[in-house]
């Protein structure tokens, strides 16, 4: 299997689908897009690792980011106080010429994430930057949870809020006390992760926050999550297909990493967990 070779490959526009598994993508993409599909091996099993290992010099890219870890704040990943948990001394502003924080400007509080239409709006609003850059990346949050048909996503919401709080604290040169967080997910997730670390139970707990209890009882965690995950991917692909029809140039659709649903005891995605469900990603050269 070929390495992803994200920057070494030829493209004008690259659509990054966050946490998109190759196998699920390969089963549904032909309903929305035409092109040549390959399975490639990503550089990382999570967004921070992928970004750190992919963008290792300065690149003339207009990057529309629905993911808070790739941002225009200039805060290194290893200094993010919420959600990253890594040692990578990397920030997007040191490596990418123009990052648009769609995770901030296009955030939907009801969904707890950045919907596809926010990426499209930011892209169209900043057409001059797109024309000036050598290449353009559109980083969609889907099929990454939360699942759009359910709304009220918790995991990404807590990361987004945490980064915002850190940005505000650093801009005012004073530490902001964390205080009581507002949602059940904000309260449970960090406690579970800090106490159980990499255990399967801790990983499942994060996913449970995004699922409906009745779905879990009826179908089990894996089946319930996979059904909603595929639905999230289809929503994203429908939006991507509409946008791609307007683009003039070579277009590639890929992912930063995949998503695990219990394989080898792993759930969701985690830094430096190099198993096939997390590392095998699609590489579709669109016709």
Shape: globular
Q: How much helix is in the residues?
A: 25-40%
What is the CATH topology descriptor? Alkaline Phosphatase, subunit A
**Which percent band covers the strand fraction?**
15-25%
Per CATH, the architecture is 3-Layer(aba) Sandwich
SS-based structural class? Answer: alpha/beta
Query: How much is the average pLDDT?
Result: 83
Largest sheet: 8 strands, mixed
Give the number of DSSP strands.
10
Distance between the termini: 22 Å
How many domain regions? 1
Low-confidence parts: 174-198, 201-205
SSE ordering: EEHEHEEHHHEHHHHHEEEHE
Structure summary:
Residues 169-178 have a biased composition (Acidic residues). This is Sulfatase N-terminal domain-containing protein. It is built from eleven helices and ten strands.
